[in-house]
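#lab-general

N.A. 3:47 PM
ok so I finally got the sequence cleaned up, no stray characters, all 315 residues accounted for. can someone with queue access submit it? mine expired

B.Y. 3:52 PM
send it over

N.A. 3:53 PM
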Amino acid sequence: MNVTLTFMVSPEYEGERLDKYLSLIYPEKSRSFFQNILKEKAVSINGETVTKAGLRIREEDCISVTLPEAKQTEIQPVDIPLEILYEDEDVILVNKPKHMVVHPAPGHFDDTLVNALLYHCKDSLSGIGGEIRPGIVHRIDRDTTGVLVVCKNDHSHQHIASQIKEHSVKREYFGIVCGNVKEDKGTIHTTIGRDEKDRKKMSVRAKNGRDAITHYEVLERFGEYTYAKFILETGRTHQIRVHMASIGHPLAGDPLYGPKKNPLHFDGQALHAATLGFIHPTTKVYMEFQAPIPKEMEDALQKLRRKSGQSTIDR
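B.Y. 4:20 PM
back already:
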């Protein structure tokens, strides 16, 4: 079934291109997607069908977009080894390795965590996330390692999703950032939204950004790099990566937000989801799980310690 969305243009979008406006208010879809939708005469302004992507919109224009029915793709179970930290009838906790995408997406349809979970759990995954994201209640980036909880039924999915929404889930990360972070502790509080110039990126200066809060604490300093702990109060896409880059300390090896030079030769951002804690959906008991620091990050830290002459943590 097709879905029709209707928007009233607010003052800040006066004079914006139609295709760009649609991609900003509906960031799940690209400008090229809406350009194709326009060609199919699926967009109207104030009741009149329009087809020009470059049409400039006006304040209080009423825009209606009819989205085609999403094509469902059957996701196949694949025998991919998983490092399971904990499992019961409600949840499964895994230590996601680097380079593994959480759920199917273009270019990754048979090598994701979901493919592996379908093989391991068979039919025991919640259906709230839909056919593409069974059991998935939260995500971490492809090149971020660490602990992830997956729900086996709708009850556990709803229960943990509500905890995430209420910011009561404990999420601690460890990472190596570029430069010397001067403050021992700090909080970064901004909004984060899709970058208007580069849709692969998120930005603290994007229009329609959502509230984002990251707490950080310095663990070790190495001059050119800093090892830090991060605690998420919210969970926006690329949150830690965007926040640290916004204060001039991007994650080492970050291909999107970091410098082109990568002396540590870190393969992807040096970020690890180390701790996840939540109230169990059935027992109502608080549970906490840790994923050990991956070898690549530990090797980088040992190299930095030797170079700086450190042997203990310098808080």
